[in-house]
Amino acid sequence: MQLQYISTRDQASIPVYWHCAQNSRGTLLLQPALGIQAKLYNELAKGLAEAGYGTAVIEQRGHGLSSFSPGYSCNYSFAETLDFDIPAVMQWLETEVPDVPRFIGGHSLGGHLSTVYTGMHPEDIHGVVHLACAFPYMNDYPAREQRMLRLLCALIPLCAIIPGYYPGHLLGFGERESISMMKQWRHWAKTGRFDFDNRKGLAEAVEAFSGPVISVAFEQDHFSNSAALERALSPFCHSSVDKVTLGEAEQGSYLGHTAWAKSPQGVVTAVSQWLDKAL
Questions:
Q1: Which of 110, 147, 185, 219 is most buried, most CB within 10 Å of its CB?
Q2: Tens of pLDDT, residues 42-72
Q3: Cross-strand pairs, 106
Q4: Alpha-carbon gap, residue 267 to 244, rounded angstroms
Q5: Could you give phi then psi for residue 94, rounded to 5 degrees?
């Protein structure tokens, strides 16, 4: 594993855990879930690299090795990820491993951003990987989860006043996050649409993409259900979509929304087999 710092057009430096594969048959850019540090996915990335797919795990702004710290004077959003961070890493991958298929994917929020990016650049992406990727639209969830989502949506605008960032570490959902980003997530939760701010037609743009998609779900994931998983996949109306649910037989006791990443052997098998088929 190599740690790279990749410069973006907005003068940021994005940490990336790079797991190189010998004679790589393709590359995968992997994005974390909300509030999760990139290092959690190193075992997954290592396994995929050993299977022949160089995997780059991108650090979210404000987490892990990132130099950003959300607050009044540091207020980034989905736009920086989509317009600066992902393109910079994609360009680096093209230089590092030229002339191979490019896959993009992520865990939860990372999967949603991968979907949007694919609609923005359908010609550059060969396939998309969703891991525990369920859209946060509140009406897709049972009453208990709905109440939690409604409470978070009510609190997010107040956090813009004090303390100037979203304190997810205190609320039990996410970590310290940028207010602008969480307002965009709030819009998703309230509307069920991928659009945010003045960016419209983001889901419709994915219709231009016809490559393969895999959605890996996990038993004991309380942040997911069939309706939310389907909504996350709904933009891929011209793609072949493989849906896999992993349980104890594949993952042992490492299940749920995040614990799977600590021992991801079942995920490595499912995703690497799908990658082989997708080439």
A1: 110
A2: 999 999 999 999 999 999 999 999 999 999 9
A3: 31, 130
A4: 10
A5: -65, -35
